[in-house]
Write a structure and sequence with these properties.
The protein is an alpha+beta fold. It has one domain: Glutaredoxin. The protein contains five helices and nine strands.
Length: about 170
Amino acid sequence: MIKPTEKVPALELNLINDTKWQLSKQNAENFTLIVFYRGLHCPVCKKYLEDLKTKLEDFDKRGVNVIAVSMDNEELAKKTGKKWAIESLPIGYALKEEEAREWGLYISNAIKDGEPEVFSEPGLFLIKPDGSLYCSSIQTMPFARPDFAALLKAIDFIKKEDYPARGKA
């Protein structure tokens, strides 16, 4: 488990817009937000990422770079962007199982048709520009994820009060 203030694992991914994304090259003013989602098969992920897309400008105004990531292959990830109309959201794909485990994500096996054989459960990570973890939320199920509007308010508070990372003891 990655504790707050510790360096997070390196992350390099291809995006659905045919570019490459590297965590180490983000140069965010305040944070990089990584939202790990289950994949195209997940209707809860669809609603969650549609909500995130509507708040991209709000995160940008707060100096937060955003990416959504799954273990889906390129074909499924590109279908996700089109089918869910979220192509403006940076979407990384082909996260390897071992990478997902490095981030502390829970791994599930398919239980019904339409699910990938293996996929990661959701996780949200707010990372400081120095590559250290500020905070995270990791789920074992697709439900009860952090609300983006509440996260935006939290970022305002963090910046205003210079609130330190918690949970590292």
